[in-house]
Amino acid sequence: MKRIGIISTAVLFAAFGFTASVRAQEHDKDASPEKHQEEAKPEKERPKQDKAAKPEQRENQPEQRHDQDKQNDKQNKEEMSRPDQQQDRERAAQQENQRQEQDKAPKHEPQKDEDQRRNDQRQGQRDDQRRNDQDRDDQQRMQRDNRSSQPEQHGGAGEQQSTWQEHRARNWQSEHRSWQQRGGYHGYHIPDDRFRASFGEAHRFRIVSFPVVVVEGFPRFQADGFWFAVVDPWPEYWADNWYETDDCYVDYYNGGYYLNDVRYPGVRLAINVFVN
Q1: 91 within domain boundaries
Q2: Which residue range forms the structural domain that includes residue 15?
Q3: Verdict on whether the full-model pTM lies above 0.70
Q4: Fewer beta carbons within 10 Å, N or C terminal of the chain?
């Protein structure tokens, strides 16, 4: 009896298990279409989503085209402006070259000659004025020297003899000095017309016929309104009375005045000219 009960119980359990297995299979069959539908839904819905995204892309495309148009316009403007800038630079360079060529070009010769002539004329006027001022200053200085000095006048031959003997050289070659050696002539300049009319080799004289004075240790003689101071000693080989017997003349040589004795050509005594 126990074995029969056990078998019955086993048969019941087996029947129950089979029934449960069948139901489970049926449930799986029923659920699989839904599952397949759910898995298939995303594939069907993707095109819709893609299609839904296309309008957004279409909405962004005008903005992108607008930005692209702006960039193209900017590039076109830059490209259009480049030739103008290049032309401006070329024009500026051409103008600079023209200016440099004009600077290098020689000035108009007639104008240059006229300017040079005017400059020379002004320079000549300044030189004349400077010489006149120098002559005036020399005259004033010599007048002051004449007024301040107390000359010893020796008119006769006997009086002049002692004066000239004191200025005789012992060695004229070593004691003589020209005006160049003295630093140049700075005395009074006799006007050319006065000099040609009264002096030069054609106008000879004897010193004894003129008044002679001693000023600052040097003998002076007066001729035709001018005083001549003999600053050189006379040569030791001249005659003792040369100032009485020899013909002399005043000459202008190498920038200064000199006294010449006709008997001794080539010997020049430096003399300075003064006016009253």
Answers
A1: no
A2: 1-28
A3: no
A4: N
